[in-house]
């Protein structure tokens, strides 16, 4: 398990960001979705918890296969998706990511928002009595993002809001900006597979950091689009974009039935976090292979699954051992081979 606390400051108030976050997530998910890949919204409805009160529950499926790096595609079937469940009791939220294909993999994000510049060192102390974590400040204006996600219109060093007159953000802007708020995110990554745990958990944290950086950049870069919205208006925007996004993704095999039964408060087994943006897929240098070096034939880039069972056969709603048991050993061997090649470089 690898635990980190990310602190992301914004030139907004906590109350303003409540609208901006919802707007950003919906728009970003729609932009990043394509037929068969992207973010499918399964549930988005009010939710009440005995401890945290009224909130909003969302469940999404993030389809990522073609966006994964080649070393991950070697062990992941083409119908791979990540389930995101989020409980939003703003300004306290929780998000959990799981994958049926990787039962020992999970990401847990607990978030708290405060109107300060990231100076509260005790915000998660009650949850960290016996756990140490690394604190990472994320600068939405000056930290680098993956090149393919860069847009000049979203470069906060040069962006200035017409409606709020905030921006352009200069070096050291967090010390002089008013208003200012901070998203405190406690991120726990688990990948309990011997021999791969440390490397995979570090990679996932790199991905999570990039996602948080991009999402918060966009929330402020789009501020003139949402700053005048009410909560009812942004919820209506969510519903409209949700329908458009699901249509854009299209039918993604296998078809899976979705229960209409509302969740009860007892379904929440751990802390929940705000909805998140889709994961990006850029691997850190430690996991990347030189593009001009030929791969060994023993390390296939993708894993081909057998044809689906005939319609009369009994199938479960998720990938289980019966579906992939014949492929895990081969795929893991290929993955280890590729990792070994990287270590030799």
Radius of gyration in whole Å, from Cα?
Answer: 21 Å
Q: Outline, from the CA principal axes?
A: globular
The level of helicity is 25-40%
First and last CA, distance: 27 Å
Q: List low-pLDDT spans.
A: 251-291, 293-336, 338-345
How is the largest sheet built, in terms of strand order? Answer: 2-3-4-5-6-8-1-7
What is the helix/strand order?
Answer: EHEEHEEEEHEHHHH
Mean pLDDT comes to 75
Kindly estimate the percentage of residues that lie in beta strands according to DSSP. 15-25%
What's the number of helices? 7
The chain-level structural class is alpha+beta
What's the number of extended β-strand segments? 8
Largest sheet: 8 strands, mixed
Detailed description of the structure:
It is built from seven helices and eight strands. It has helices at about 15-30, 70-75, 175, 195-220, 225, 230-250, 320-345, and strands at about 1-10, 40-50, 55-65, 80-90, 90-100, 105-115, 135-140, 180-190. It has an eight-stranded mixed sheet. The radius of gyration is 21 Å and the shape is globular. The longest helix has 25 residues, at about 195-220. With about 350 residues, it is α+β, with helices and mostly antiparallel strands. The two termini are about 25 Å apart. Mean pLDDT is about 75; it is low at about 250-290, about 295-335 and about 340-345. About 30% of the residues lie in helices and about 20% in strands. A hairpin with a 2-residue loop joins β4 (about 80-90) and β5.
């Amino acid at each position: 398990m690898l635990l980190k606390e990310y602190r992301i400051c914004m030139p907004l108030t906590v109350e303003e960001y409540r609208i901006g976050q919802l707007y950003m997530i919906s728009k970003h998910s729609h932009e990043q979705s394509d037929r068969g890949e992207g973010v499918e919204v399964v549930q988005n409805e009010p939710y009440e918890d005995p401890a945290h009160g009224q909130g909003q529950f969302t469940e999404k499926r993030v389809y990522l296969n073609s966006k994964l790096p080649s070393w991950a595609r070697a062990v992941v079937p083409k119908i791979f998706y990540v389930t995101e469940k989020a409980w939003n009791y703003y300004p306290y939220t929780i998000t959990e990511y799981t994958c049926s294909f990787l039962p020992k993999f999970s990401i847990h994000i607990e978030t708290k928002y405060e109107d300060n510049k990231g100076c509260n060192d005790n915000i998660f102390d009650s949850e960290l009595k016996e756990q140490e974590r690394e604190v990472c400040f994320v600068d939405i204006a000056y930290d680098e993002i993956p090149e393919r996600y860069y847009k000049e219109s979203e470069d906060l060093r040069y962006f200035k809001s017409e409606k709020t007159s905030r921006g352009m953000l200069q070096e050291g802007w967090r010390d002089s900006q008013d208003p200012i708020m901070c998203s405190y995110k406690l991120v726990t990554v688990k990948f309990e597979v011997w021999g791969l745990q440390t490397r995979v958990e570090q990679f996932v944290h790199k991905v999570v950091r990039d996602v948080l950086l991009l999402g918060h950049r966009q929330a402020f870069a789009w501020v003139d689009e949402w700053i005048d919205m009410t909560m009812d208006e942004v919820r209506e925007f969510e519903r409209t974009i949700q329908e458009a996004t699901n249509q854009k993704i299209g039918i993604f095999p296998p078809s899976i039935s979705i229960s209409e039964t509302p969740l009860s408060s007892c379904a929440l087994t751990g802390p929940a976090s705000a909805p998140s943006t889709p994961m990006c897929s850029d691997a850190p240098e430690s996991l990347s292979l030189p593009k001009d070096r030929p791969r060994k034939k023993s390390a296939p880039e993708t894993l081909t699954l057998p044809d689906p069972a005939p319609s009369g056969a009994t199938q479960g709603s998720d990938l289980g051992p019966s579906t992939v048991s014949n492929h895990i050993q081969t795929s893991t061997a290929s993955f280890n081979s590729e990792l070994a090649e990287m270590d030799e470089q």
